[in-house]
Structure formats: structure tokens, C-alpha cells
Amino acid sequence: MLGGTALMGAVPGAVQSAQSAAIATRAFTPDLEIELRTVPDQIPLYRGAPTHVWRYRAKVIKGDERAVSHQPGSPLGPVIRVHRGTRVRIHFINEVSQPSVVHWHGLLVPDAADGHPRFAVGPGGRHVYEFEVINRAGTYWFHPHPHGMTGSQVYAGLTGLFIVSDDEEQALGLPAGERDVSLVIQDRSFTRDNQLQYIGNGPGMMGMMSSMTGFLGDRIHVNGRPDYMLAAERRPYRLRLVNGSNSRIYKLA
Questions:
Q1: What is the CB neighbour count within 10 angstroms for residue 65?
Q2: Smallest Cα–Cα separation from 94: which of 19, 3, 181, 189?
């Protein structure tokens, strides 16, 4: 269960001190530079008390400010959009109460930028990620990857999208702008006072099994909300679907 700014049932892992695990290098000249923070927050999802969450906050330090966007009213995000070949530097700052690190899911990046648990930094810690985007166009995402706490931190709301475009994709004339829609699907369970209930890392065999295999929530959220709606016109849309659940498999048609 997520209470205040702390997740219950944390599992200790190999964690670096609350100092920079990696710093910016002079030899790397970024086209896009971003500050990315993990922060505690609360957001109204259901009637009654607001839900305590952890979320990413981002802003562009250098480069095209349109590269970063947040979805209003959603605990998820941000969405980072880049073109293939972009050189990216991301300053990660951990402002939650557990060690954390960022894994760029699906991206081909150097080892030091891949978000391995050994690079996790404690509360107040920093890490600098530097990489050139060499992937083809596609929908990728990023999330925490600290040892023993990946599932619970993603569950708390730490999920973002990393969308790559390239010349080949742009030549296809696919729907763009407001008709290029990202949908992150997740299942969640809540307590009676609207707080996230994470069934994992508990004592005994059941706790161990749920930590390894995950569990199924009883409510489905899209883009972090139980009431997500898209006002669509009678025109083609491009839907980018991401299964951000810890364990559930979806059949969509």
C-alpha cells in the first residue's frame, strides 16, 4: 500500500550513496538535455481522498521544448519524443524515499545508461544518462529498475513513454499530432480510502511469489486514470498501446 510518500514492503538492494552516480561528460554534446525527477504527489482518481502516487516530472534544459509533454490529470508521464540520431542527456534526480534508477525499456543504450540496479541512487541522489538514439521508430517506455522494488515503484506511478521517429516512418504518412494517441493500460487495486494497494514483498511464501510473478489488480486504468476518454473524429488514428501492468495480459480487439 502506498501511504504518504513511502511504499510499504521495500526490499533493500545494492544502492549507491545519495550522490551523483554518473556526471555529464565534456566529450558528449547533447542535442536534447532534460531534467527528470521522481517526486511524491497526490491526485484525485476516485470520489473522496486523493491518491498518493509517485511520478516523473521533466523539463527541457536544452533543445526543442516540444520534446517533453505531460498528460493533464494523469499521474503517468512524461512523454519524450525524439528523432533517430538525437543525442540525449538526462539529469535524473531522485526525490522519493527509496533508491531508484531509470531503465529505458527497449532502447539500445550504453551499459552505464541502461538503468541497471547497481546504478540506483538513494533519496536525493543524481545520475546522468547520456546516449544517442539509434533505435528505429517505435514506442518505447521508461520505468524504475532498483533491485527488489521495480514492481512497486512502477505500480506507484513511475511510468513514462519514449517515442522515437525516423525518416522511414515519416515517409509513411501515418496519423500524427492529436491523432497519434498513446494508451498505457494498467491494472490497480485500491484501499477503501483510495490508496494504491500493492500486494507484494510481504512475509511468507505468498509474499515471495507475488514479488516474483506480480498480481492482478481489480480495476483497469488507461493513462493512469479510471475514467479516461478520447473524443475521436471519424478519421484514422494511430494508437500506441503499452501494457504497463505488473502481471496482467490483455487481449485487445
A1: 11
A2: 19
Report the predicted TM-score, pTM, of the whole model to 2 decimal places: 0.89
Quickly tell me which residue has 533517430 as its cell: 84
Where do the structural domains in the chain lie, given as residue ranges? 15-173, 179-243
Quickly tell me which residue has 554534446 as its cell.
29
The residues pairing with 160 across neighbouring beta strands, listed in sequence order, are 142
Grid coordinates representing 8?
510499504
Q: How many CB atoms lie within 10 A of CB 173?
A: 7
Whether the pLDDT of residue 223 is over 90: the answer is yes
What cell numbers appear for 37 in the block? 525527477
Query: In the sheet that 160-165 helps form, which strands lie side by side, from edge to edge?
Result: 68-69, 79-83, 160-165, 138-144, 102-105
What architecture is domain 15-173? Sandwich (2.60)
Interatomic CA distance for residues 82 and 56, integer angstroms: 18
What does the chain come to in residues? 253
Q: Residue 236, preceding bond cis, omega within 30 degrees?
A: no
- Return the SS3 of 111: helix
Query: Using one digit for the tens of pLDDT, what is the confidence trace for 103-118?
Result: 999 999 999 999 999 9
pLDDT of residue 17: 44
Cell 513514462, residue located: 160
What is the rounded distance in angstroms from the CA atom of residue 234 to the CA atom of residue 181?
Answer: 15
The C-alpha cell that represents 150 in the structure block: 521495480
Identify which has the larger pLDDT, 78 or 15. 78
Q: What is the pLDDT of residue 186?
A: 97
3-state secondary structure of 74: coil
155: left (phi over 0), alpha (psi -120 to 50) or beta: alpha
Query: Cα(115)–Cα(146) distance, rounded to whole angstroms?
Result: 8
